[in-house]
Every structure is written in structure tokens, then in C-alpha cells.
Amino acid sequence: RTRCIAVANQKGGVAKTTTVVNLAAALAVLGCTVLVVDMDPQGNASSALGLDREPGSPGTYEVLVGNRSVSDAATTVSGLPGLLAVPATVDLAGADIELVSQVARETRLRKAVETFLNQRAEAGNPIDFVLLDCPPSLGLLTVNALVAANEVLIPLQSEYYALEGLGHLASTVDMIQQHLNPNLVISAILLTMFDGRTRIAPQVAEEVRQHFPAELLEAVVPRSVRLSEAPSYGQTVLQYDPGSVGARAYLAVARELDQRDRRL
Amino acid sequence: RTRCIAVANQKGGVAKTTTVVNLAAALAVLGCTVLVVDMDPQGNASSALGLDREPGSPGTYEVLVGNRSVSDAATTVSGLPGLLAVPATVDLAGADIELVSQVARETRLRKAVETFLNQRAEAGNPIDFVLLDCPPSLGLLTVNALVAANEVLIPLQSEYYALEGLGHLASTVDMIQQHLNPNLVISAILLTMFDGRTRIAPQVAEEVRQHFPAELLEAVVPRSVRLSEAPSYGQTVLQYDPGSVGARAYLAVARELDQRDRRL
Ligand SMILES: Nc1ncnc2c1ncn2[C@@H]1O[C@H](COP(=O)(O)OP(=O)(O)OP(=O)(O)O)[C@@H](O)[C@H]1O
Ligand SMILES: Nc1ncnc2c1ncn2[C@@H]1O[C@H](COP(=O)(O)OP(=O)(O)OP(=O)(O)O)[C@@H](O)[C@H]1O
Ligand SMILES: [Mg+2]
Ligand SMILES: [Mg+2]
């Protein structure tokens, strides 16, 4: 069974993209087959994976609004066998508004991903993980991701504002569960950019442990410059500096997620 | 003449809120009268200023969707004379979709702010600066801010992804200029979380200097833990640690903006 994980948090700059890109690479290194879908019009995940983002070449926009298939839009990622990705082009910025008046506006991604997963399973080449990189909002692009996914991974920056949005995100997941996707659970909360020397980071960790003890991952991603340098080379940190603390952290996240399997 | 500045960037986590809150405090310390409007449903600026965010008490949502006046919704900020703020409650999260089908959906904030500014001017108590904290998206809340403003300040994190979104933001400002607000200019680009020891930060600075030499502010805000600690006390950094490098940086930003006046 394919695990389809939406990496979501409406707070901006909490390492959603950094988590999708490096977790995908870590899972691929551990032998999994992974599909990344870039749902963010900024297209940061697409550029971090070195993908072509020419407007017009099929990407997430064409899948959501133009009825193209995921197999048309997905491309391989150089240097990372086992990893496929659907890029985001700037056209995607219009999708939030364009989808408002369309039929089945919340379920378009789910249909497209399900068709693709079935095709791959029938061909004997199943996908193990799908990772969806969400934009920093709770609009129709994130809703599509939460409807397509069966679990949500929430990256949480270890800073003060991080906790403010968590309640709102959790109630959005509840609402999606009730009306659109009964399978959806918050399966993991990942502390990112963790700097134990600050006063705040351990406080945020403690606060999250009290409210979401089962979801909080043991693995924590420390603040590390190598993580923010890798995308400027179009590489994941696994390729850029495999021995770095960032690479090891995302390998630990991959192993822990693999072992925990989604909570049933 | 009041300067109305939208602090905007669709990239998340680049210090939009940190800039609005601390620049407002710095301007107030320098003797200006400032109105802050929190346009972000996350309400981070509201909580950083220690404002009450009870759902139902009038805030930005009631001004945009419920036709309340800014003078009804604005409250003073304790500890900072000269500073007023309109808080954001979680109702605001629905405004993006709710406004889509309303009449004059892009100009609601402008009308409300103009009425308030005229009232204050007639009462002999004019507002010097209005600062609008935008969410990390280019939806109707940010569009309302760009229509109400006469200038845009773009906080730019000194990291790789920062440059990717700049072109898209500049073309959105152009589009608003052509169709909705001919007065609008990008008046300032502010480098935030600048860490000169990294390889990337100076490269980003150089790249911006080439494309936007006139807009790039001399003042730069370095990465500093005191800036991220202040909001957990409901204070600006000017109150929390007035001698800190973060407080001095935002005072320098305030002085430079005041001197440059918006480009005509
Ligand atoms: N552990 C880390 N250490 C240092 N820098 C990091 C780390 N994780 C992410 N970053 C950097 O922080 C910035 C924000 O991360 P990223 O863009 O992945 O967040 P995001 O949540 O995807 O943002 P958005 O809300 O805009 O989509 C980036 O410049 C990234 O390189
Ligand atoms: N100069 C700085 N030094 C250290 N930390 C900073 C600095 N500026 C901002 N921060 C911290 O970085 C995080 C992101 O900043 P902030 O929330 O202001 O960005 P934003 O652009 O408003 O985010 P969003 O896109 O979610 O609205 C916050 O935790 C903030 O405290
Ligand atoms: Mg991102
Ligand atoms: Mg903000």
C-alpha cells in the first residue's frame, strides 16, 4: 500500500520544501520508490530537484486544471534513481482561483494520483511513498493535497509563532476528515531548524510533546547551513553533502517514518 | 501625506511580520504615528503586539467583509504610544474565498483606510505611516493590501529560494499598478536574517543589488535570537531589548525609510 503524505503547514518558512525534497531523497537512498508532487506555485521543490519549470511543459497545473495524467507530467530526478517528480510552474498560481468554480475542485489531485498509482501497481512497479509539498496557505491547493493524502506530516519550526498555527491546521485536517477524506490522520510532527542553544526551541518541543505526544517524531532536524546551500546547486543535501548533520537527520526521519507506518 | 506601505512577499518565513512589528515600533519611538493592519489570518503581528484576538471582537475581517470602520477595529498598543493596530482573528482565514464573489472585492481595505486617514487628518491628528502585514500568498488579502498601499516594502531572506519568487512578486505589483492602483511602487527591498558568515547571503545581496539597485536598502537586519524571542513576551524587540542588534537594525531601517520618502 502506497503511503501518500501531505507535508503541510500554513505558517511560512518552516521547512516544508526542505523536508519534502530531502526526505524523498533519503527514502530513495533507502531503496523506496517515491513520487514528489510540487503543489506550491513558488516551485521551490521543483528547482531544488533540478527540474525543468518551463511554462507549458506539463506540471501540477496541467494535472489539476488541464486533465493531464500524472504519468505525462512526472519526470525522473537526475542523480536519484527511484525518485519521480511532478514540477510546479508559475501557471499554478492561478489554480487556487481557477479551481473555485470547477466541478470536483477538491478531488482533482486525488483522482489523478490514484490513477497513476494503479497503473504503476498493475505494471508491477509500485510506488512506496508520495510526498506532496504544500504552499503556506490553506487554500484549494493544500485542500487538494489533504484530500489526496492518507497522512499529514507537519514540519514545525522551533520558534514562537510555530505553535499559533498548529491548532488551526489541526482543525482544518479534522474538517477534511469529516467532509472529504475520512482516512486522513496527522501521522507525524517534525521539529525543524532546531537550535538547542536557544531558550525557545526546547520550550516549543515540550509544548508539542504535551499536545501531540504520539505524533511528535523522535528525529529532529537541527539548523544547518548545508541544508540551505544544497538547493542553490539543484541538489538535495543527500547528494550535496551526504555526511552532513542535515543529511543524517533526514535519513533518521525516513527510517522512523518507515518503521512507524501510518497510525491506523 | 500618509505613507501606506504593504510589507509583502509570497515566500513564507522571510520576516514580513517581524519587519512590520519592529519597524512600526521603531517609527513610533522616532515620534511618528503609525497604524498597523494585520492582513494575515495567522495573526502573528496581532500576538506580537499583545493584542486581543477573541473571535467576534472587531478586526480586519469585520473591516473587509462586515463593513466595520477602521476606527471601530483599531486598538492602541500598550507600551508604545503613537501605535495603533487592527488585529486579525481566525475568521480572516475565510475572507480570501468569501471576497471572491463580493462587489469591489479588491478595494475594500483601501476605502476603509482612506476614510480613517481622512477622519484623523480632519481631527488634526494625522497618521504618518500605515504598515500592512501580508500573508505568504498573492490572494485577495494581499491584493487588498497592494491596492490600499502607495508603496511596497519587500523583506527578502538572504537564502537561495528568496530570489525565485522576486520576479513573480514584481510582476504582480506591475499588474496591480496597471489595473487597480497606478500609484503603487516597490519602494524598498530589505535583506533580513542576514548572516554574513554564510556563502549564500552575500551572493543574494549582490544579485539583488544588480536587479534592484535603487530599491535595496542600505540597512540590513542580521539574524539575531533576540528578534525571535521578543514575540513570546508579546513585545517588540524595541521594548524587549532596546540595545540589541535587532532593535538597532530596525531603527536604522525606520530612519532610512523616513529619509528616502517614497520614490515619486
Ligand atoms: N534545518 C535547516 N537549517 C538551516 N536552514 C534551513 C533548514 N531547513 C530549511 N532551511 C532554510 O530555511 C528557509 C525556509 O525553508 P523552506 O523554504 O523549506 O520552508 P517552507 O516551509 O517550504 O517555506 P514556504 O512556506 O515558503 O513554502 C529556506 O531558505 C531553507 O533553505
Ligand atoms: N533577523 C532575524 N533573526 C532571527 N530570527 C528571525 C529574524 N527575523 C525573523 N525571525 C524569525 O523567523 C521566523 C519567521 O519570521 P516571520 O514570522 O516574521 O516571517 P513572515 O514572513 O512573517 O512569515 P509568514 O510567511 O508565515 O507570514 C519567526 O520565527 C521569526 O521570529
Ligand atoms: Mg516551500
Ligand atoms: Mg507573517
Which terms would index this structure?
homodimer; 264 residues; alpha/beta; 7 strands; 43% helix; 14% strand
Report on the architecture of this protein.
Two copies of one chain form a homodimer. Chain A is α/β, with parallel strands linked by helices and 264 residues long. Chain A is built from twelve helices and seven strands. Chain A has helices spanning 16-29, 44-48, 60-64, 70-73, 95-100, 108-122, 140-148, 162-179, 200-211, 225-229, 237-240, 245-260; strands at residues 3-7, 34-38, 75-76, 83-86, 129-133, 151-157, 185-192. Chain A has a seven-stranded mixed sheet with strand order 3-4-2-5-1-6-7, sandwiched between helices. In chain A, helix 6 (108-122) packs parallel to helix 7 (140-148). The mean pLDDT of chain A is 95. Chain A binds chain B through residues 10-14, 17, 41-44, 47, 90, 93, 96-97, 100, 135-139, 157, 159-161, 164-165, 168, 198-200, 203, 225, 228-229, 231-232, and chain B through 10-14, 17, 41-44, 47, 90, 93, 96-97, 100, 135-139, 157, 159-161, 164-165, 168, 198-200, 203, 225, 228-229, 231-232. The complex binds adenosine-5'-triphosphate (ATP) (2 copies) and magnesium ion (2 copies). One magnesium ion binds at residues 16-17, 40, 44, 133 of chain A.
Percentage of residues assigned to helices of chain A = 40-55%
What hetero molecules are in the model?
adenosine-5'-triphosphate, magnesium ion
Biggest interface between chains: A-B, 37 and 37 residues
> What can be said about the biggest beta sheet of chain A?
7 strands, mixed
- Mean pLDDT of chain A, to the nearest integer, reads 95
Strand order of the largest sheet of chain A: 3-4-2-5-1-6-7
Q: Can you write the helix and strand succession of chain A as a string?
A: EHEHHHEEHHEHEHEHHHH
Distance between the termini of chain A: 13 Å
Number of helices of chain A: 12
Radius of gyration of chain A: 17 Å
Quaternary structure classification: homodimer
What sort of overall outline of chain A do the alpha carbons produce when their principal axes are compared? globular
Strand content of chain A: 5-15%
Uncertain ranges of chain A: none
Structural class of chain A: alpha/beta
The number of E-state strands of chain A comes to 7
